[in-house]
């Protein structure tokens, strides 16, 4: 992401750190709103919250990939505001489906998968970025959105 913003928008480390902080704050706010309002107050089903989270990620990938100005990049975290909720929805669904004595094993499996995914996705995104940097620098965002699409089917 840093290399993308540096190449596309001529950002320096300070510009990127401000954006990164803004992105984390919007993600935290969106997760809190999603859990508090959608789940507890409105009683929306976890599967629907998971679908909304995945759609938020997919839509934001298009905003990131095709943004040409700084304000468009700053718009993307607002579009992606519900993205953090998918992890919570997955764990919530699993805790309701799995017997209580198996819950520790399921949470361990989630933890291992979440720890291993950067080993797969990091090099893949780097390779895609390096291969498409001169033509479509945001292609790795589109790939990320495409890889999120099966999760919508799984949640449904």
Q: Would you kindly provide a written description of the structure presented here, covering whatever features stand out?
A:
It is found in: Membrane. Its main location: membrane. One of its GO terms (cellular component) is membrane. The chain crosses the membrane at residues 20-41, 48-67, 73-94, 106-124, 136-155. GO terms for molecular function: transmembrane transporter activity. The protein is mainly alpha-helical. It has a single domain (2-155), classed as Growth Hormone, Chain: A (Up-down Bundle), CATH 1.20.1250. The chain is built from 7 helices and no strands. The protein has helices spanning 2-9, 13-41, 46-66, 70-79, 85-97, 103-132, 139-155. The two termini are 30 Å apart. The model has no long low-confidence stretch (mean pLDDT 93).
Question: Could you give a quick summary of the protein structure above?
Answer:
It is found in: Membrane. The protein is mainly α and 156 residues long.
How is this fold's topology laid out?
Layout: H1 2-9, H2 13-41, H3 46-66, H4 70-79, H5 85-97, H6 103-132, H7 139-155
GO molecular function: transmembrane transporter activity
Subcellular location: Membrane
Transmembrane segments: 20-41, 48-67, 73-94, 106-124, 136-155
Listing every helix as H and every strand as E from the N terminus to the C terminus, the arrangement reads HHHHHHH
Tell me the structural class. mainly alpha
Unreliable spans:
none
Kindly report how far apart the N and C termini lie: 30 Å
Mean pLDDT: 93
Total number of strands: 0
Number of separate helices: 7
Main sheet characteristics: none
Question: Do you know the CATH topology?
Answer: Growth Hormone, Chain: A
Strand proportion, as a percent range, falls in under 5%
| Helix proportion | over 70%
CATH class: Mainly Alpha
């Amino acid at each position: 992401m840093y290399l993308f913003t540096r190449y596309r928008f001529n950002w320096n480390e300070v510009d990127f750190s401000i954006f990164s902080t803004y992105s984390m704050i919007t993600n935290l706010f969106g997760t809190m709103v999603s859990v508090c309002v959608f789940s507890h107050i409105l009683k929306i089903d976890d599967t629907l919250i998971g679908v909304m989270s995945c759609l938020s990620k997919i839509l934001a990938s298009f905003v990131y990939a095709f943004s040409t100005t700084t304000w468009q990049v700053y718009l993307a975290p607002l579009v992606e505001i519900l993205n953090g909720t998918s992890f919570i929805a997955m764990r919530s669904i699993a805790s309701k489906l799995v017997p209580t004595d198996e819950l520790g094993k399921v949470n361990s499996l989630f933890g291992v998968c979440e720890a291993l995914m950067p080993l797969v996705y990091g090099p893949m995104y780097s390779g895609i970025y390096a291969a498409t940097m001169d033509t479509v620098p945001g292609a790795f965002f589109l790939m990320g959105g495409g890889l999120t699409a099966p999760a919508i089917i799984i949640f449904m």
